[in-house]
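Homework-ish question, so no full write-ups if that breaks the rules, but can someone show me the predicted structure for this set?
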Amino acid sequence: MNIPYTVEERPDTGLANGKLGIWLFLASEVMLFGALFSTYIILRTGAEEWPHGELNIWLGAVNTVILISSSVTMVMAWASLKMHNFGKHRLYLLVTWLLAAIFLVNKYFEYSDHFGKGEGPWHSTFLAIYFTLTGLHGIHILGGMVVMGYFLGPGAKLWKTNPDQFTNRIEYTGLYWHFVDLVWIFLFPVLYLL
Amino acid sequence: MHSAPNIKKYLMIGAALLVFTAITVAANQLHFAVPLAITVALVIAITKGSMVASVFMHLSDERKWIYGSLLLTVVFFIVLMSVPIFTVMDTIGTPIHHAATAEHTGR
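A: Not a homework solution, just the prediction itself:
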């Protein structure tokens, strides 16, 4: 049995089901991260003092540049499919995946530095919310890498049988990836600079 | 719904996002007073976020069902962000004798 409206738009919503589905998922993600940002505000306003300069601003800035660049390559991966250039699509998607991996490697070094000094989440309120927010964000990066890895591997076969559906799937992956980038755009100043 | 991909636009937005990141870090080096630093950082972050959402996520050219679901999200997000304010204003659980003492001593 075929799943309906994977390519064509539903008459009532004017959208393919996957498009509406990914946006509803992202709406739930907004609430998930929103709850943690709200928690951060409560913890920070309630704290007698809040540490400054605990994190490496330059490493955070480099990771911001990496994620922004990965958003550009991700949208280019989708645009290449729209222009029926599968080769370029694969190149851009691979670069996006690699940038995501570099982001996580940087994060690993940051985490290692903290744990090496005995500064885990238990060390202070700031580090507790820092590890919670960046840890959850890191899991999202990892999730995105798994999906991109699938479309670089076995999932790519769909391009031959149903290119429109494959293009839609890459678009939904891109929407998720841009959201992950968007969350980091707020995490960077909130945790590293303020 | 969105029109054909505009490569030049994507690259320009990408470059603008990098410039805004540089401005955020540079502004931090100036060591503004905390309220101003928070305002500057959040204004830049909101600008960058809007650029990602409107151009990369094509929100500037979408169907009303997407806008509808996001409008609902925005409403609940605002409620969520108001929770810290409610927390500060909340006096439920404050011992009555504390309130009475404060009133008696004029504090």
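Now go work out the reasoning yourself. Hint: The domain at 17-193 of chain A is CATH 1.20.120.80 (Four Helix Bundle (Hemerythrin (Met), subunit A)).
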